[in-house]
Amino acid sequence: MDATYYEETQAALITDEGVIRYHEAGEENDDVLLLLHGSGPGVNGWRNYRGNLAFFAKTHHVYIVEFPGFGVSDPVEGHPVLTAGKSVIRFMDALGISSAAVVGNSMGGVVGINLAIKYPDRITKLVTIGGVGPNVFSSSPSEGLRLLQEFTDAPDRDKLVRWLTSMVYDRSLVTDELIEERWEAATDPEAQKTAAMMYSSAAFEMQQKFMADADIAPYWAMMHKVKCPTLLTWGRDDRVSPPDMAMVPMRLIPKAELHIFPECGHWVMIEAKEAFESTVAAFLAR
Fold this sequence. Notes:
Elements: H1 2-9, E1 10-15, E2 18-25, E3 32-36, H2 45-49, H3 53-56, E4 61-65, H4 80-95, E5 100-105, H5 107-118, E6 123-129, H6 143-153, H7 157-166, H8 176-186, H9 189-199, H10 201-211, E7 230-235, H11 247-252, E8 256-261, H12 268-271, H13 273-285
Parallel strand pairs: 3-4, 3-5, 5-6, 6-7, 7-8
Antiparallel strand pairs: 1-2, 2-4
């Protein structure tokens, strides 16, 4: 089913900064929903949301947007989080989408929050899946991010398996097929370049210096500017972005609510699929 559905929904948009590839499903209507993916070895929008696209297409016109630099859309110069946000605006402008609801997993949630801050009239509702806010009680970087850093510095299959296992509560989800799919994608040169900019030891050291600059506020310090209704979703057993991180966005975002899913890791939309979909559907329908 994946292969057929992949071909049926796949499309490409030529912009002035290269091709943005995406997947599209749902009847033509004004209820547009953008699904923004996370980061990590072998990740892309299709792999994050292929199991959810058909569900949300029942009520919305849905687009899975593939960010530049992850081996699908054309790469562009700049930090992946910033170029991802710019690509979403280019995408919306090119397709004449004036405003949309957004679901963002991990990095995609950070991108969604930044868009809601900078373009408040264009983001109608926001759903984040882990990954947003600072660590409050848990160590930083988290266990999952340390494993990601180790893989990025010197990739091999064993490190990939350890990282993938940290992403989930149910280890049976880390199948041989998933490992092979992610390994093949993670060794793409552009994907490796993007990962190095985000998760290498050198990138982490640079981030620490950046955070120490008193003149530069981190994105989460601006979350009080998010005006749209926001649903924060979290896996209770998330070892990449532990749930204590939810405390700051829950307090700072004026119209935020929080839903935590038990026996679930970082991939809430995959590991708690039915519960996640029904929770988000109810939120979007209000």
